[in-house]
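Researcher: Hi, I'm a grad student and pretty new to this. My advisor asked me to get structures for two proteins we've been looking at. I'm not sure of the right format, so I'll just paste the first sequence and hope you can take it from there.
Model: That works fine. Here's the first sequence with its structure tokens right after it:
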Amino acid sequence: MRPVTELPSRTGKTWEGREFISETTPDPFLLCPSFFHQYRVFLTPMTTPPPTPAGAIRPREAQPGPGRGGNGTRDPFAHTRVVRTARVALPVVAGLVLLLIVIWPLFGGSGDGSKAGPDQGDLEMTKARYLGTDTTDRPFEIRADRVMQLGDTGSQVDLSAPEADITMKGGDWLSMAADSGHYDQDKNVLTLQGKVSIFHGAGYEFRTNEAALDVDKGIAWGNKPVEGQGPLGMVEAGGFRVLQDGDVLVFTGAARLRAMAAGGDKNKPEGTAP
């Protein structure tokens, strides 16, 4: 009879460190008359792991990576931490963006002269045009190369190279232009300074250094020396008045008129009137 340790195992099962009983089919070479044979196999546990073949690939579940622990297992709390971080970070980023939008105009500045600066409370516009009507719905227009609004109310406006056109009651028109000016929107009064040129629809053209126009009342005046020409000839005076919606033109102060003959040359006046 063969020794028990030499009995072949027909099941092909091995279990490290465990004891098991295996049943086998009859072996014709065994001298034992028993139909079934039982035997016990004792396996000694391995003290060292078997060597890994060269070039072998580690299993995916054993490889460390994002969301995995140090032993290669997946971290079940990784997704929760990402969600919590996003809940805090996204509102903070949105708040910073809104804050930047609000404070950027205060510190960014602007090179456009038509906008108010941080230390300049006035509003400026270029190539401005203002259309309106007087108390009798007569149209008037004020234009300027540059307009600066003074103060917070916006009723006081400084003008650069202003021009004004107004239609008078009788159908005549009055046009004025100057180097600079000031417009009071509450009183509807335009004041002009510098080289002021005035044109009247009746054919008068004269120049002065200061003039004013009250749009609602339809009058204009000036207290500075004035000189010009009209249908009657050349005129020099200490001031002027345009009254009754342009129907009356008055020269004030020491006025002198150099009258011209009908059809005569303007450069050859017929006489001088005090």
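Researcher: Oh nice, that was easy. Here's the second one.
Model: And its structure:
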Amino acid sequence: MPLRLYWHISCKKERWGERDRKNFGFFAPATKEWEVVMRGKGVRKTAMTTKARKPAKSARKAKHGCHDDPVLAFYQDDDELFRDDDDLVAGDEEELEEEEEDETLDNAIRKYLGEIGRYPLLSAEEEMELARRVAEGDIEAQQRLVESNLRLVVSIAKRYNTQGISLLDLVQEGNLGLIRAAQKFDPSRGFRFSTYATWWIRQAISRAVAEHTRTIHIPVHVVEMIYKIKRITRHLYQELGRDPEAEEIARVARLSKERVVELQGMAENPVSLDAPLTDDEPYHLADTLEDTRATAPAEAVTHRALRDQIASALELLTQRERQVIEMRYGLADGYCHTLEELSAHFKLTRERIRQIEVKALRTLRQPIQAHLLRDLA
């Protein structure tokens, strides 16, 4: 569910000054003193009220989904953000009550949004002047260029907010990319700084996601190839109206089919063996996997019956013959002893041990005993 931000404006002055418009213009029109109240867990409930005059042009654009400011774009899915008191009906209030538990902003994010709102946006001329000064080594110009675009980082970071990293951490990673963009920006190429910085911000955030969200670490360049495969897959799905084959993806990506299949496998999230099968059963995924180290029940029964048949046949031999056969063929401990080892054990010659073995085998081959071992052949 998208996070919803509600603005409670208390107007205590009749007119605005130009300085107030510049400093607080990215909020809804109000007076110098304003208060932001968020509906969320542990936050007091309040209806949206505003005593402002006719909304400014920027506010009217925002109401129709056209947000010049990235922070307002952060909440562009929420039409109720720009409603008046008259637009709130009983059904809306009930819906807000149901979503209250799931729509809470962290205090740090709230404070951060309020802080960056004080920095005004720059015009194209101001960006060019600041970029020229940054190229000359002016640290203050670089700081101003970065501060004026912090809201852009928030707008981009919220797209990655489902990747397992908190929004505040994503914003901090994006800020590093923004600083890098400010250092390398060249206004002579003819595009705005926000357009150039977007690439650096996305790269910094995507690298952080690749580094910190996967249980099994994957190199960054491989993660970027996975993203490329996903983009190509979505594009081909729109064109073909079906899931594309690996050969089709490989042709567009200029990779081998085997490499595409390998990357698609890497893109899948690992599944925990401790994950429950269902909410109602106490069984886990590991309970459904075969333990290759354990003996299957049917095999255990067969093995036990086999040992019983062999034991019955060996009962017809003398004690020494039975011991020689068991040790010679590994029936006792699973290890087949040599004639030399048996000779040392029984303190007999190797030839005598061989004679005892031959006599025991001849006894087991007699018709009276052979039927006990016939099924084992």
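Researcher: Is there anything I should tell my advisor about the second?
Model: You could mention this: The chain has four domains: 7-105, 124-213, 219-289, 297-376.
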